[in-house]
Amino acid sequence: MKIVIYTIIVSLLAGFLLGLLLGLFKKIFYVSVDERIQKIRDALSGANCGGCGYAGCDSFAEAVSKGQAPSDGCVAGGAECAAKINAILGTSSGESKPKVAFLACAGDRECAHDKGIYVGPKTCAMSQQINNGRKKCAFGCIGFGDCVAACPFDALSMGQNGLPVIDREKCLACGKCVKACPKGLFRLIPKDEKGAIALCSNRSENKPQIKKDCSKGCFKCGICTKKCPEGAVQLVNGLPEIDRSKCTACGQCVAACPDKVLVLL
């Protein structure tokens, strides 16, 4: 009987001492946690899409609390999410315009032909590494759909013409397609942007070869720059660049382009 009592007493003393030690260690090694992190995490969309540039919502929430990421960085949550985060932080990110992905290439399979029979891995990234892409045009869309696979919002699909199709309603401008495209053909533009824009990324100076590679390639004729009454169009690195502060979306450059490279948004 005494053995049982002694065992109980020793167990209680050991438990008491262990509790004291744990409490002491907790104070010694205590790391303060910013309570705002969890609040910010709760305000996020929870998509864990990585569109913010971080591994997931947890990492982004911590970065925002430390001032290392913008409060409006959650593309899936949009303006509503940014407003909640600003309320938590007591800050303001200003008014941000919604954006959408844009593909600067019109080289579908009818006008941009393959170099030959491609037998490598069916990804744009590998095709780029192996043979600078499978198309004759070294600047055009390869067409294996790496961008489609990268899109976390199902906003991209491969069209029957061999080019990616962007669903503007689903696109949240996360930028995944921008990073996935080895040719750098995607860019993010304001969703409500108006005016002319070029459907070509061919910067080659070899004009005769441009048409051989793609019948819809920009020929660098410069007619668009001459026809614009506002002087909003300039050739930069061989491609039409539009000054949005001057462009009135009159469409004269679009009508004048013999290659139909320019379109109106």
Index terms:
single chain; 265 residues; alpha+beta; two-stranded antiparallel ribbon; elongated
Structure explained in plain terms:
With 265 residues, this protein is α+β, with helices and mostly antiparallel strands. It is built from ten helices and eight strands. It has helices at residues 2-28, 35-43, 57-65, 78-89, 124-131, 146-150, 176-180, 207-213, 223-227, 252-256; strands spanning 99-103, 156-158, 164-166, 186-190, 196-198, 233-236, 239-242, 262-264. A two-stranded antiparallel ribbon has the order 1-4. Strand 6 (233-236) and strand 7 form a beta hairpin. The longest helix is centred in the first third of the chain and has 27 residues, at 2-28. The model has no long low-confidence stretch (mean pLDDT 89).
Short note summarizing the structure:
With 265 residues, this protein is an alpha+beta fold. It contains ten helices and eight strands.
Which percent band covers the strand fraction? 5-15%
Q: Output the helix-strand order.
A: HHHHEHHEEHEEHHEEHE
Provide the spatial order of strands within the biggest beta sheet. 1-4
Reported for the largest beta sheet, the result is: 2 strands, antiparallel
Which of globular, elongated, flat, extended, rod-shaped describes the shape? Answer: elongated
Fraction of residues in H or I helices: 25-40%
Q: Flag low-confidence runs.
A: none
